[in-house]
Specification:
By secondary structure, the chain is α/β, with parallel strands linked by helices. Helix content is 18%, strand content 25%.
Length: 362
């Protein structure tokens, strides 16, 4: 299928720049496949579409602060965005700007790298002077990988962990221009297992109270883990979607969760996946129609023509054009219907992307 078929025009002002409060006050775009109907609700009203016996599957991965501000030895600004831990102090990373192999960058708490933000009193924050070589061990930039990222090397695994703890920042997408005042707002309320470089954004809408109300209705909530990688930020550049490749991502599905989902399927109860990350995990381990527990790596890219074996309902966000997420949602609900629903969302001034509004596909 041609990638251009998954394009649409979005006014820039509809790209959400900050999260809405409270979390569950965001809008909810409801898509009913059989009726080809679209309506708008509040996310807190999702309870009306759930019923006793449903099983809601959430991803408990936690985002790690992988964006590291840096300086060249000349004092020029740089950035190291860690992607994958290769062990022994080595990581795959994105590096800005492009520098020769062997270059050493110096990490520090450099607020000059960030946009100036307004404080509650309306006074502008002062910009901290350049940090120079405050982080003496630094990080060495090594060779390029086949997919265009870089290998970077810290002096040890412990040094890398120290860099993350001391200087790491929330890895927001480039289309978000405003600084995030509260980093926890880029985590789900139940985030537990560290490993993602991007948040499972569909689940950012849930509050602890809403989850309790969902359970009180008789919906069982279970958790799996998928550590989301940088593939979530990558648009599809190939002319046809089938040529696009997703990088491997780690998943873990426990025996108990597999048993509960398999019981629900056997009994004809609905499995509700929150996020394309959860969909990909469930369909990866459920190719035979039943969930197989365990851990592993998946690069499963769901494209039109795929027959879903596990998931019955999908909660997700409003996704970028030419993205693997939009292709998955279109596969689940039908491309023409999804793009028509997106046009409705644009007309109704929904907020799009990471901190935007949600959708429910029934």
């Amino acid at each position: 299928m041609q990638t251009k078929e998954f394009e649409y025009l979005l006014p820039k002002e509809l790209i959400a720049q900050e999260p809405i409060e409270p979390r569950d006050s965001s809008k909810l775009l409801v898509l009913e496949r059989r009726k080809q109907a679209v309506r708008d609700e509040k996310f807190g009203d999702i309870l009306n579409y759930l019923k006793e016996g449903d099983i809601l599957v959430l991803n408990d991965s936690r985002v790690i602060p992988v964006r590291l501000p840096a300086r060249k030895i000349t004092g020029g600004k740089a950035e190291v965005f860690l992607l994958k831990n290769s062990g022994g102090g080595r990581w795959e990373a994105l590096v800005k700007p492009n520098v020769p192999s062997g270059t050493e960058l110096f990490l520090c708490e450099d607020r000059a790298v960030h946009p100036v933000r307004e404080n509650p009193e309306g006074e502008r924050d002062k910009v901290v002077p350049p940090c120079g070589m405050a982080f003496s061990n630094g990080v060495k930039i090594l060779e390029k990988t086949a997919d265009g990222s870089r290998i970077v090397e810290f002096s040890s695994s412990e040094t890398a962990q120290l860099a993350l703890e001391k200087y790491g920042q929330v890895p927001l997408p480039l289309y978000i221009k405003k600084p995030l005042i509260n980093p926890d707002r880029y985590q789900t309320v139940y985030a537990k297992k560290e490993g993602s470089v991007a948040a499972p954004t569909a689940a950012l809408h849930f509050t602890t109270e809403l989850l309790k109300r969902i359970e009180a209705k008789g919906v069982e909530i279970v958790y799996l883990t998928l550590h989301m990688g940088w593939g979530t930020f990558r648009p599809i550049k190939e002319d046809t979607v089938e040529k696009h490749r997703l990088p491997d991502e780690y998943y873990n599905v426990s025996d108990l969760v597999a048993q509960k989902i398999n019981a629900a399927k056997k009994e004809g109860r609905r499995v509700i996946a929150c996020g394309t990350d959860v969909v990909r995990t469930l369909e990866t381990v459920g190719q035979n129609g039943a969930i197989k527990s365990g851990e592993g790596m998946t690069s499963f890219f769901i494209t039109p023509g795929y027959k879903f074996k596990i998931v019955n309902l999908l909660i997700t966000n409003l996704h970028l054009p030419r993205s693997s997420h939009l292709v998955l949602v279109s596969t689940f609900a039908g491309k023409d219907f999804v793009l028509r629903a997106y046009q409705y969302a644009i007309e109704k001034k929904f907020r799009f992307y990471t901190f935007g509004d949600a959708t429910l596909v029934i």
